[in-house]
Amino acid sequence: MSRKREHEAEKENGERWLLTYSDLITLLMIFFVVLYSMSKVDAQRFAAVAESLNKALGGGTPAKIELSTSPVGPSLFTTGTPSSKTSVPGKGNDPNQTSHQGNSDTEKMSIDAIKAKLDKFAADNGIQSTLVSTIEERGLVVSIQETLLFESGSADITSRARDILEKISTVLTVAPNQIKVEGHTDNLPINTAKFPSNWELSVIRSTNVVHILQRDGISPNRLSAAGYGEFRPIAPNNTDVGRGRNRRIDLIILRTKYDLTEPNNQAANSAPILPAVKITP
């Protein structure tokens, strides 16, 4: 009787390896299922998540995330040269993505049209060397040198400059974009009762330009003024030519994606009104 029990115990112990083997097979199956699920991704949802994260983190240049295409669908594991446009087999185009692309194309056409009009205006009036427009990542930058707007060391806009700004305003009025007016100076110090430093000179110059643009029909909700003194040069300050280029007013027609970083009336109107707190000594 005891021998039979010993034989059954040995038989049971000999089959324990099957438990370990089955566990290993199960883990391998789960591992490959996870790999398979990671290799497939909804390209449109992934792009939407990336764009949402980019906006939530403060705008900036939208990250371009490329998805390679495999026979079973788009994959995160790219090989070779990734294609610039990925489509999902069996699915139509996302209308939201198409709309966003359309808005970007429309805005690009708008900025290009504004630049073309301003360049033609500068060429017709022989001021193309002092009124220069360039397209940057943040938008269209219209750089106007000091000699076209102000007397040296002054923030008062000349009568000729008022006419020039009026013409520029007629072009900018039709676009909805936010407009930043930035004042810049060279590194030559200034110390007067009105302008203790280049900071004050650059800020007051940009503010005076904002007043002219507002008077000419541009909504004040679209305008903002800033002064950078001599600390944002675009040329060396060791020559007269370089200092002349640095003394400028920049009008930046911002791309609409930067509306998220600009304060607006809606945010002010929706903000809760906190009760007044009286502090007694």
Please provide a written account of the structure.
- The strands form two sheets. Strands 3-4-7-5-6 form a five-stranded mixed sheet.
- The chain has helices spanning 2-14, 17-39, 43-56, 95-124, 159-172, 198-215, 240-246, 265-270; strands at residues 68-70, 73-75, 131-136, 139-145, 179-184, 223-227, 248-254.
- The chain has eight helices and seven strands, in the order αααββαββαβαβαβα.
- The protein has two domains: 2-92, no CATH class; 100-263, 60s Ribosomal Protein L30, Chain: A.
- The chain is elongated.
- By secondary structure, it is an alpha+beta fold.
- The longest helix has 30 residues, at 95-124.
Keywords:
281 residues, alpha+beta, 60s Ribosomal Protein L30, Chain: A, 2 domains, five-stranded mixed sheet, two-stranded antiparallel sheet, 8 helices, 7 strands, elongated
Radius of gyration: 32 Å
Total number of domains? 2
Choose one word for the global shape. Answer: elongated
Strand content: 5-15%
**Uncertain regions spanning at least 5 consecutive residues:** 60-92
Distance separating the two termini: 98 Å
- SSE string, helices as H and strands as E: HHHEEHEEHEHEHEH
Strand order of the largest sheet: 3-4-7-5-6
- Can you identify the CATH superfamily of the largest domain? OmpA-like domain
Structural class: alpha+beta
> What is the annotated CATH architecture of the largest domain?
2-Layer Sandwich
Helices, by number, come to 8
CATH top level label of the largest domain: Alpha Beta
Count all strands and give the number: 7
